[in-house]
Amino acid sequence: FCTPCLQECLKPKKPVCGVCRSTLSPGSRALDLEKQIETTETTCSGCNKKMYLSKMRSHAASCSKYQNYIMEGVKAVTKEPLHNTRNFPNRFTFPCPYCSEKNFDQEGLVEHCKTLHSMDAKQVVCPICAAMPWGDPNYRSANFMEHLQRRHRFSYDTFVVCDYDADEDDMMAQVLMRSLRDK
């Protein structure tokens, strides 16, 4: 996770899991695991120095041989240049169209707008719809709050397997085929 997305999930008012978005409950420290980390020895893969696991992170940050070891591994598994992620639309986090606060998941955006912007009548573009292949990034909803309540009560990908590149007819055909197989 990138830092802004992780921070959004860990906000004090509602800390949630970064994957399933379920509410996190306060936990207790795993003292047995901490003890095991402090007493287990390992060897640095770069300089072969022995140390306890608890010291490995700080050692790795300053060990130039370990850094070289990691870079060699990265080069070995990188066969082609990484894809430019700017070419793929972000369909997981959205900015508020009223105040431009960023990194809301769909549920968080709905909650934020209900709490802070329920009386705002300004016509805005729905950032969730605009991110979808079928969405119009220029369409301004006459009643954005009603649109959120009706259209975005749940996230599509929570309940169905979405193929955003398929058109509506293809998705309907896939659904019909699955329903016939499930009988």
UniProtKB/TrEMBL annotation:
Pfam family, one: zf-Di19
Transmembrane segments: none
Annotated signal sequence range: none
Keywords for this protein: Ligase, Transferase, Ubl conjugation pathway
Pathway annotation: Protein modification; protein ubiquitination
Catalysed transformations (reactions): S-ubiquitinyl-[E2 ubiquitin-conjugating enzyme]-L-cysteine + [acceptor protein]-L-lysine = [E2 ubiquitin-conjugating enzyme]-L-cysteine + N(6)-ubiquitinyl-[acceptor protein]-L-lysine
PROSITE patterns: ZF_C2HC_RNF (PS51803)
Enzyme class (EC, first level): transferase
PANTHER family: E3 UBIQUITIN-PROTEIN LIGASE RNF114 (PTHR46016:SF3), ZINC FINGER, RING/FYVE/PHD-TYPE (PTHR46016)
Protein name per the record: RING-type E3 ubiquitin transferase
Native organism: Geococcyx californianus (Greater roadrunner)
